[in-house]
Design brief:
single chain; 360 residues; globular
Length: 360
């Protein structure tokens, strides 16, 4: 998910997808963490729009973010040191926003911050302050060993493991009472198996096949909500609300199709790449526990927005504005880092590594 630490120049097609994916995640959070529960809405276009076109795309965004990160890492030699270095660099940005957000809410919105949240905030990865950060950090540490192990497998063995991973993440959760790996590093491990198989044994794919993959996923994604809404309308049982939390096969197919399509858009835009560098900050700022309450319960409670003119467009515009404000804040952070910790961003890691090596 984290993008601001990539040093080489990337295609703006991928960076544009990163921005779109974060916007989808922000939309998901708006619906799923809102103080107004969507269960209160009767069957209607508004309800379907909020679930299928906003909440439902959040997990697609997560898979896209993870795929972007892994796709470019897989082509490089990995080591435990490089993994811990990435976690170290990530931790600096986490601590910056922890300090900034804690200070802000301690001054302006103290009722939504506690002593426990302040104390645990300075160990954001270990205390699961942001679930994606913790899951991704654990995955990074495990990745070198997993990549080496998968590289030993032949194509057939890797394919069988990828199929098993796809079934476990994409199909089993739809079975009532079925296993759900959920928002954990376990999901990332299974996705890693699938992505590496695509990268090593299937890629490149024909454009026509990619389009089919995307539209099969998209139609499945929209169809699952239509079926669930029909069940709710006929039987009065609301299965719709839980669906946006699944990494089912519709989400996986849609995300992989989107990534492969945008990966073919080979162009460069410094503006797009610059904005994409701050996409991670949008997640950190808006999904901080106190920010959830401020944004989705107090400021943009859905119950107070339902009567807005052009409701759907207004909601999308509000989220765009939130995204823009967070991006501007992160631009300021990047300037600050450029004159401070980024002047020699690996220095303290190297010092700590040497001390541990000497002690050993």
């Amino acid at each position: 998910m984290h993008s601001s630490h990539v040093s080489h120049r990337r295609s703006s097609g991928i960076e544009l997808l990163r921005i779109i994916a974060m916007y989808a995640i922000l939309s998901h959070h708006f619906v799923m963490h809102n103080g107004f529960s969507i269960e209160q809405l009767p069957p209607s276009f508004t309800r379907y729009f909020l679930i299928a076109f906003m909440a439902g795309w959040g997990k697609v965004g997560v898979v896209v973010f993870f795929t972007i990160s892994v796709w470019f890492l897989v082509g490089k030699q990995q080591s435990i040191r490089s993994s811990f270095y990435r976690v170290w660099i990530l931790e600096r940005e986490l601590l910056f926003y922890i300090i900034l957000l804690t200070a802000f809410y301690s001054i302006f919105d103290r009722e939504d911050i506690s002593a426990k949240s302040i104390l645990t905030g300075f160990l954001p990865i270990l205390t699961n302050k942001w679930w994606y950060v913790t899951a991704y950090a654990i995955f990074l540490v495990l990745m070198p060993a997993m990549q080496s192990g998968l590289a030993i497998l032949n194509s057939k063995q890797h394919r069988n493991l990828a199929v098993f991973s796809f079934l476990l993440v994409g199909v089993v959760p739809f079975i009532p009472g079925g296993i759900q790996t959920g928002d954990t590093s376990l999901t990332f491990i299974f996705l890693f198996v699938i992505i590496t198989y695509f990268k090593w044994h299937v890629y490149p794919m024909k454009t026509g096949h990619i389009i089919v993959l995307f539209f099969v996923g998209l139609l499945s994604l929209l169809g699952q909500y239509l079926v669930s809404e029909a069940v709710y309308t006929i039987f009065g049982r609301d299965g719709l609300v839980d669906l946006p939390m699944l990494y089912g096969f519709p989400v996986l197919l849609t995300a992989f199709g989107l990534f492969l399509l945008f990966e073919r858009f080979d162009f460069y835009s410094s503006v797009i790449n610059r904005i994409a560098m701050s996409s991670f900050a949008v997640y950190l700022i808006t999904d901080y526990s106190s920010s959830r309450i401020l944004l989705w319960d107090k400021m943009f409670n859905l119950g107070n927005l339902l009567d807005l003119p052009l409701f759907c467009f207004s909601i999308l515009l509000i989220l765009f504005a939130i995204y823009a404000v967070c991006t501007v804040f992160d631009f300021l952070r990047q300037v600050l880092f450029a004159f401070t910790v980024d002047r020699n961003k690996g220095k303290w890691f190297n010092v700590l590594e040497k001390k541990l090596s000497d002690a050993h």
